[in-house]
Amino acid sequence: MSSYRLPSGGLVDRAASLAFTFDGKPMQGFAGDTLASALLANGQRLVGRSFKYHRPRGVLTAGAAEPNALVTIGTGGRTEPNTRATMQELYAGLEATSQNRWPSLAFDVGAVNGLLSPFLGAGFYYKTFMWPAGLWEKLYEPFIRKAAGLGRATYEADPDSYEKCWAHCDLLVVGAGVTGLAAALTAARSGARVIVADEHARAGGDLLSTTATLDGLAGPAYADAMLRELASHPEVQVLPRATVFGWYDGGVFGAVERVQKHVAAPDPRRPVERLWRIAARRAVLATGAEERPLVFGGNDIPGVMTAGAMRTYLNRHAVAPGRRAAVFTTNDSGYALAGDLERAGVEVAAVIDSRPDALAFPGLRARVIREAVVSDAHGGREIQAVDVWADGKRERIAVDSLAMAGGFNPVIALACQRGAKPRWSDAHGAFLAPDVDGLSLAGAAAGVTGLAACFESGVRQASAALSDLGFRPTPLATPVVEGDVVPAPAPPLWMIPGVKGKAFVDYQNDVHRADLDLAVREGYGHVELAKRYTTNGMATDQGKLSNVNAIGLLAKARGVSPGEVGTTTFRPFYTPVSFGALTGAHHGKHFQPVRKSPLHDWAARRGAVFVETGLWYRSSWFPRDGETTWRQSVDREVLNVRANVGLCDVSMLGKIEVCGPDAAEFLNRVYCNGFAKLPVGKARYGLMLREDGFIYDDGTTSRLAEDRYFMTTTTAYAAGVMTHLEFCAQALWPELDVRLASVTDQWAQMAVAGPKVREVLQRVVDEDLSNAAFPYLAARDVSLFGGRLRGRLFRISFSGELAYELAVPADYGESVADALMQAGEPFGIQPYGVEALGVLRIEKGHVTHNEINGTVVPADLGFARMVADKPDFVGKRMLSREALVAPGRPQLVGLVPLDPAASFRTGSHVLSKGAAATLENDQGYVTSTAFSPHVGSTIGLALVKNGASRHGEEVLVWNGLRNEMTTARLTSPVFVDPANEKLHA
Amino acid sequence: MRDSALMRRPAVASEPVRCGDLLLEAPGGSILQLLGKAGATPPSDMSLPEVAGASPGLRNAGPGQWFVVTDRELTGPEIDALAARLAPSLHVVDQSSGRFRIRVSGAPSRRMLAKGVALDLHPERFPVGTATSTLVGQIGTNLARTGQDSFELLVLRGFAQSLWDDLLLMSREFG
Amino acid sequence: MASRVPCPHCGLRPKEEFTIKGAALPRPAPDAGEAAWIEYVYLRENPRGAYDEFWHHTSGCRRWLVVSRNTLTHDVYGARDVALGGETQP
User: Fold this and answer.
1) Is the minimum CB–CB distance between B39 and chain C shorter than 8 Å?
2) Which residues of chain A lie closer than 8 angstroms to C1, CB-CB?
3) Helices (H), B6-59
4) A654-742 maps to which CATH number?
5) Which residues does chain C have within 8 Å of residue A277's beta carbon, measured at their own beta carbons?
6) Chain A closest-CA separation from residue C69 CA (Å)
7) Which one of A605, A760, A811 makes the best mutation probe of the B interface by having the most chain B beta carbons within 10 Å?
8) Of A235, A761, A827, A862, which sits 20 to 30 A from C28 (CA to CA)?
9) Model ipTM?
10) Its Gene Ontology biological processes (chain C) (predicted)?
11) Each residue of A333-382: pLDDT tens digit?
12) pTM surpassing 0.90?
């Protein structure tokens, strides 16, 4: 394999030789190479196999639209499949692997698919494998997936990091070719904040591959001078290696910056990719144009590439395409390449020009064949010859490379992502996009040709955007451009006569011309139908090269204009974006924030097992030595609360301060029970309803002062209740003067419960805690530790025992909890977790969101008498709806198995004794279950039709999922201290 | 128990962390939330003489609401005196434990915060003395600019460790 | 959906900071008939075009806004505080 590197020239650093491998084969390139240019320089023209037919494929372009040269980069966790070799910068140690071939790139068994091609044509999914359906999973799909494929993703974890970042600017310029640089510099000199993003490693676009001069400077030097000036403006940010992939509502653009995808060993402190969200007041799209391939037979054989790409490799990377080239052109741009090839010493066998009236090009030695086309290219793994049709005669010309100059498609994807429709311009022979919503197109993206005109266009569009924003634009003078070949727009050449071989339209999805003809014949000629029927434009390149050719061919076949065929819908992403970039830093430990109780470390020190509850980590139970199951720990904790005293962290309950002169009236309207007359220093259980009448949340609320309440909510609904209260205060009753503050995090709150609790608490709390001085439901500010700390004490009980909740400033929570444990030691105090808390509350018949599940009204839970007769409260009107007061509502009951050794599960259904398990016989369902050490068996709470009047009835508890049937008895939901003597002790 | 050791344990127990030119600190002190009527203008005397010795800073926290932050931990009587004077137009809620204060300073502060903050932190758009509530990544914070290159964040105590860890990650490239 | 919402108190903010409740409907009087309440609680237009919704600036000023937007074009026409007014355009 010989070198195609030219002895001199180009923008590669010949002093910096870079060793890399392709399919394990060692190769050399230079700094400034892309992987594609380095492969070509090494004579590696075959770089992959096609998707469906496994045809040999080579590099077709020099940019983002590349459909063929998709390779896998890297190894292990850094394996990145489907990387476009044309966009991958070369680095020392790069390991590239070809894809979709077996056993090897050169000899590929799958190429037999080419012989099967009659069966793999358009719509083959829908037709060939329709029947029998049973074979899909076993045969068809695995076969197709294996035969037609892309690279394989790794299962190893990605060792690199990613991040997201916001940016703001007056003007975003997408693309840093001559147009974009002119636009950006105009904006910079006008004092605007500018971001310029360019998808390539080096900004400059076509300035880097042209042989023209600007103000006497070579293109690259001119680009560098512009970049240097941009860098000197503090409010300008140039982002190389950054692809703007999406335009979203509100002037927000998404871009992905490949920060360290061009180094072998990324700096671990920096991300490999950064996802930018750019809020831009105006944007100029200077995204240039893609050269259109020409649709002739064998247009996919390695050695065939677009003329612009060939020129880039030749001039920028100093890589010759071969020894003897031909140029097939529909416009003047092919001649610029032909001239450059000859100057570089590559023989140009012919310029085949489809136009009858092409002008002679001065200085060109090559034979020019006018009014001619290439009908077929020949060759296996490399092109060997072309068939040229002219004057009705076929001539075979031996070549080892062929350039296609089929005209230009402006890159308008971003401009059309938010619904704007491209329109066909006959004058340009291309689809153009409208300027909309603060985004305008400039340069080749707007159909402009030639460096000078593009420069002017960039200046003009930037100036217009800046004037819009109130800046006084400082337009740049257009440089004197010499030696630029400015192609006048030429009519597109869709249908090439005399084609024999497969003429590819969509290279990546292996869609050829005959597929589109078939789609039209079978009635799928509409552009959106043809896309799905043929899969044209559905590959990872999103049809960058193929869509317009497909539209042109559909137009020909239907006898209409391309404008009438129209385009398919443009959507983000412009080019593929890695999941890593979209995830950013939010994975692993940083996946989502963790919410930690102020007593988290305290509980951890005591060996707590934690459970995730929303974002919170709650202590579940506290195992002791010798306990082998969680049940042992929980039973012990429960019994200890009933016998001695326990301490449970309830800090994660929602806590809200409700202040203001109208706080009482406000609470009276958000709770269904009365709060206006709650005395200062007292707590009350409250039920909040939704407007539809069902219960929303519950909790205790205490009046600390005339105009100040302290509300608690359930943990799960803490945020929701706060938002709901704000809605009530702001949207429903703005006339009430009420102010709300979330104090959930301010207080470490401990439930201290059990018959011996008073002795323990009294050692910490300064105030008299006797039943007379601090009765049931008392709620007051208290002084602790001899006046050294202030807290709040509430005599409330979830467990049914004599109990208090003590709140102290969270930063002191651990100290106070430690002091209580120390004070409680003589009384047998033990910490208990949410599992024990759950058992205790079920034993006492207290409800949680297991019961308040969105289907119950107060009466269903035995709270009918709580609903106050007030003029208004949230849910009042709908609570009296017929269905909510009708007989036969589900009502809360207790449930015990007849056999204490038996048990049942939450979610099981309740059936009348002897009834079959049918929907009609359903009496209700079990909402909560626990093993009750107090009762000595499993107990449950259930919502059962007319349950309140059925205590004592024997029922069946049926679990259809597990086929379990348990006989049980309906009981009062209160299993412990039904007279509430303990609470008042 | 009356003589038990009372230790204040802030949500994040960390010494200041330096990442190159960036400095992350947890200054401690006190945080009070002032609750006014929505739409009310700030009271005429917000110089807070009762706590002047603790060099208070005032942070906007939405219509009618402010945070007062002090570098020194305020005493109960100091808070009471302030609350008494501001009543009834403002209610004072002690959030010294409920919010955690993080200070970020150094030249790359703005670049670091841009990784999590959607706001335009250009000094002309978000000048010194400005404060607002916003998301830093996934975590809600009250963000204030206290200097050209210094910011302070108030975050719910429960999220403080997560935010601190996130900020360290965002700062890594500057270290 | 709008990427950024013009909060009258906080300026343009990303949509992640907001919680959407739905149509900005007035709450009927407590003694309004059942039909009015059924309509308020359950019935919603699904307009193609202009729509007023309650948005809560959850991670910002915690105020409830009425955001006027176009469900078809995703344009945001403006937002005002539900109680304090102060219409702002993007």
Assistant:
1) yes
2) 249
3) none
4) 3.30.70.1400
5) 14
6) 12
7) A811
8) A862
9) 0.98
10) tetrahydrofolate metabolic process
11) 999 999 999 999 999 999 999 999 887 888 999 999 999 999 999 999 99
12) yes
The confidence score (pLDDT) of residue A756 equals 98
pLDDT, one tens digit per residue, over A403-457 is 999 999 999 999 999 989 999 999 999 999 999 989 999 999 999 999 999 999 9
Per-residue pLDDT tens digits for A704-741 = 999 999 999 999 999 999 999 999 999 999 999 999 99
CA A859, CA A867: separation in Å to the nearest integer? 9
- Mean pLDDT of the region A67-71: 96
Chains that touch A (3 or more CB pairs under 8 A): B, C
Distance in Å, alpha carbon of B118 to nearest chain C alpha carbon: 7
Closest residue of chain A to C38, computed from CA coordinates: A878
| Separation of alpha carbons A94 and A89, rounded Å | 9
CA–CA min distance A613, chain B (Å): 13
| Chain-chain contact of C30 with A871 (C-beta, under 8 angstroms) | yes
The CATH architecture one would assign to domain A494-567 is Orthogonal Bundle (1.10)
Provide CATH code, domain B17-174. Answer: 3.30.1360.120
Single-letter amino acid code for the residue at A774? F
The rounded distance, in Å, linking the Cα atoms of C45 and C68 is 15
Yes or no, beta carbons of A726 and C56 under 8 Å apart: yes
Helix (H, G, I), strand (E, B) or coil at A389: strand
Q: Bridge-partner residues for B65, per DSSP?
A: B35
Chain B hits for C14, CB-CB cut-off 8 Å, are: 118, 135
For A603-642+750-841, the fitting CATH number among 3.40.50.2000, 3.60.21.10, 3.30.1360.120, 3.50.50.60 is 3.30.1360.120
| CA–CA dist B164, B142 (Å, integer) | 14
- Best mutation target among B9, B65, B125 (most A Cβ atoms within 10 Å) is B9
Distance of CA A910 to the CA centre of its chain: 44
Identify the CATH homologous superfamily for domain A162-289+410-482: FAD/NAD(P)-binding domain (3.50.50.60)
Is-contact B31 B67, C-beta < 8 A? Answer: yes
DSSP H or E segment with residue A454: helix A451-468
For residues A208 and A11, the answer to whether their CB atoms sit within 8 Å is yes
Nearest to B99 by CA among A746, A812, A593, A652: A746
Instruction: Determine the residue of chain C that is closest to A280 in CA distance.
Output: C4
Taking CA atoms, A937 is separated from A841, A903, A904, A911, A966, in Å, by 15, 8, 10, 20, 13
Q: In this structure, are residues A52 and A69 in contact, taking their beta carbons and an 8 Å threshold?
A: no
The single residue listed with the structure tokens 């700390």 is A789
Q: Topology of domain C4-88, per CATH?
A: Folate-binding fold (3.30.2270)
Report the pLDDT value the prediction gives residue A100, as an integer from 0 to 100: 79
Q: What is the dihedral of CA A47, A50, A54, A55, to 10 degrees?
A: -70
Kindly report, residue by residue over A909-927, the tens digit of the pLDDT: 999 999 999 999 999 999 9
Q: Answer whether C14 sits within 8 Å of B135, measured CB to CB.
A: yes
What are the structure tokens assigned to A222, written together? 């001119």
Structure tokens at A321: 């395409």
Q: Which CATH number fits domain A295-406: 3.50.50.60, 3.40.225.10, 3.40.50.300, 3.20.20.70?
A: 3.50.50.60
Determine whether the interchain pair A727/C30 forms a contact, defined as Cβ–Cβ distance below 8 Å.
no
Q: Could you tell me if A442 and A286 are in contact, meaning their C-beta atoms sit under 8 angstroms apart? A: yes
Above 70 in pLDDT, residue B55? yes
Mutate to test the interface with A, among B91, B119, B142, B153 (most CBs of A within 10 A): B91
Sign of the dihedral defined by the CA atoms of residues A675, A677, A681, A683, in that order: negative
At A1 the pLDDT is 41
What number does CATH give the domain A887-985?
2.40.30.110
CB contact under 8 A, A731 and C82: yes
Q: What is the CA radius of gyration of chain C?
A: 14
Q: Give the containing element (helix H, strand E) for A940.
A: strand A937-945
